[in-house]
Specification:
The protein has 26 helices and 16 strands. It is of the alpha+beta class. The protein has a 5-stranded antiparallel sheet with strand order 1-2-3-4-5. A 5-stranded mixed sheet has the order 13-12-14-15-16, with helices on both faces. Helix 14 crosses helix 15.
Length: about 575
């Protein structure tokens, strides 16, 4: 019954739609391609087949159907995935997805959920009047307060008291950064909850709002559930908006994200006050290939922009940059200049390489030929990282005109750099270093057609083949069993069935890395049969040869030799 439900739901969803809602797809012929989210991918190496309802990465070999994709991408259990897809297509799966597997972090997440509610209640109460007035002056209204779950910590130690009454120990509260000994960490601060990529609150940033000598912001220390380098503020909301807007905007602080949301821009994330990490780049790549850096306009912000842009270039991702004037950040710029001017800046974002070239020029002394030559050389170096020939030509012509240098001279130097950069690197692909024999290829091809062409399955059943290797024989038996039980077989559904069968899943993962022709005929199947029979004969001949060596009786040796002769001529 459950397998019928699993199949029914799977057949009502399209894997292309599910993956496309999460990762930008490129259509190439009959398949779709995207950057693989399961390894450090720069070029689209994951293929998604609408026809087979299967995805395959040709680099890391991640393979599966819509269930395995959601389980691995969203970190859901199979039951949770089934319920999610069931709800999507209007099929009631009952309580099948409600079983929650407790983890040691559940209690920590619950503490932060309670703390967030406590802070929100404080802000809404009479004690929050002064804080609400401060927020109103900062143009943060009730709607924004509610959307971003902004709260208020009080001067008392009420949160620690509240949580200890709910069976939290002081040791636990100290460990997760909500208390220090028997006192609340946060006092008299406006509280901004920080969420992980799934939307669970895992930390806070508390801002002073009275005239005080304390640090403006106090952030939760790193804990087991809060690692700054693995989190991007507003990610859980921005991921949907980024798909709709087909771009993602990166900012420095959460106040910038909050401010842009007030003018209808919600495809924004913030870096949590740290330098961009590799883990964050992996997360950002999932959202959109169109990435815009909109960091602060002051000197540290410009330096951070250069570092972030270089980090993306290392991953072979070219981003765009918004330059804010007068040391502004997005929050202050919008308040001073208005939403139309800010939106115009976003629309006119420039490529990072152009931004870097401008930044380099500001440091050049035009009176020094040596500095000018070094600058030109660096510009050519930046251009060598670009594949857009129009942008390259425009920049080369501009350089030639500005510095009165022959265009051909610049072009020759540029080509030298480009050739050096594109010099092929010799390497051996580990995934292809182990060659398959023609018998293994025949077995895998035949298994593929068995689960995609019903008539092939019937032919195999009548042929009495002995497949090479135990894992192929196990897979064949499982295919027969599945077909007899359910009356039909499809690749995506059989893949779900095979998830807890190690040998079968290994075979499926391996053969789905290959491309097979859809138009299969009896002649090809006959050739595959012959290859497998040939392998069986070779193995039997080898066994009989060993037997001859062990046999002492000449008559028995002659009988075995005759058996070998007949096998060789195919009798």
């Amino acid at each position: 019954m459950q397998n019928d439900l699993v199949t029914q739901i799977r057949q009502k969803v399209d894997i292309v739609d599910i993956i496309g809602e999460r990762i930008p797809l490129i259509n190439r012929g009959k398949n779709y391609f995207c950057v693989c989210p399961f390894h450090d991918d720069s070029n689209p190496s994951m293929s998604i087949s609408r026809e087979k309802q299967i995805y395959t990465c040709f680099s890391c070999h991640a393979t599966g159907n819509v269930y395995t994709f959601l389980e691995n991408y969203e970190h859901l259990s199979f039951k949770e995935t089934l319920k999610y897809l069931g709800d999507r297509v209007g099929i009631d799966v009952g309580n099948i997805g409600s079983t929650h597997k407790n983890t040691k972090y559940d209690k920590f997440y619950e503490a932060y959920r309670l703390a967030s509610k406590y802070y929100q209640n404080n802000l809404a109460s009479e004690k929050g009047k002064e804080a609400r007035k401060y927020l109103s002056k900062r143009k943060i209204d009730e709607k924004i307060i509610k959307e971003f779950e902004i709260g208020l910590s009080l001067s008392e130690n009420n949160l620690t008291t509240l949580l200890t009454k709910k069976d939290y120990t002081l040791l636990e509260l100290n460990k997760i950064g909500l208390s220090n000994e028997n006192r609340d960490i946060y006092h008299d601060r406006i509280m901004f909850p920080l969420q992980d990529i799934t939307g669970k609150t895992v930390a806070f940033s508390g801002r002073i709002y009275k005239n005080d000598n304390q640090n403006k912001y106090l952030n939760t220390k790193e804990t087991e559930i809060f690692k700054k380098g693995n989190i991007l503020y507003h990610y859980h909301i921005a991921k949907e908006e980024a798909r709709n807007q087909k771009s993602i905007i990166i900012m420095e602080g959460f106040m910038d994200v909050i401010r842009t949301s007030t003018i209808g821009i919600r495809n924004t994330i913030a870096l949590m006050g740290t330098a961009l990490t590799h883990e964050q780049i992996v997360l950002i790549k999932r959202l959109s290939p169109n990435i815009i850096l909109c960091l602060d306009g002051d000197t540290p912000g410009k330096e951070a922009t250069l570092k972030a842009g270089e980090a993306f270039l290392k991953e072979q991702i070219e981003v765009k940059v918004v330059t804010l004037p007068n040391d502004d950040d997005p929050d202050t710029f919008i308040l001073k200049e208005g939403e139309e001017r800010f939106k115009a800046l976003i629309e006119n974002a420039i490529y990072f390489n152009n931004y870097k070239i401008k930044a380099l020029k500001q440091k050049v002394s035009l009176a020094s030929d040596k500095e000018k030559a070094a600058y030109i050389d660096e510009v050519l170096e930046q251009l060598s990282k670009i594949d857009d020939i129009i942008r390259i030509e425009i920049t080369l012509k501009s350089l030639a005109k500005e510095f009165d240098i022959g265009y051909n001279t610049l072009e020759i130097r540029f080509k030298e750099k480009k050739t050096k950069k594109n010099k092929p690197t010799s390497f051996i692909n580990a995934s292809t270093s182990k060659k398959k024999t023609k018998y293994i290829k025949a077995a895998e091809t035949l298994i593929y057609y068995m689960i995609s062409q019903e008539w092939v399955l019937t032919k195999v059943k009548r042929e009495h083949l002995i497949f090479p290797e135990e894992k192929y024989r196990i897979t064949i038996n499982e295919i027969f069993y599945y077909y007899e039980k359910y009356g039909k077989i499809e690749i995506a559904d059989f893949y779900t069935y095979a998830q807890d069968k190690k040998e079968v899943k290994e075979v499926l993962d391996d053969l789905l890395q290959e491309e097979y022709e859809n138009d299969v005929n009896s002649l090809l199947i006959k050739d595959l049969f012959e290859a497998i029979h040939e392998n069986s004969r070779n193995l039997e001949i080898k066994r009989l040869k060993n037997k001859v060596l062990e046999e002492l009786d000449p008559l028995e040796q002659a009988k075995i030799a005759e058996q070998i002769r007949k096998l060789r001529i195919g009798d």
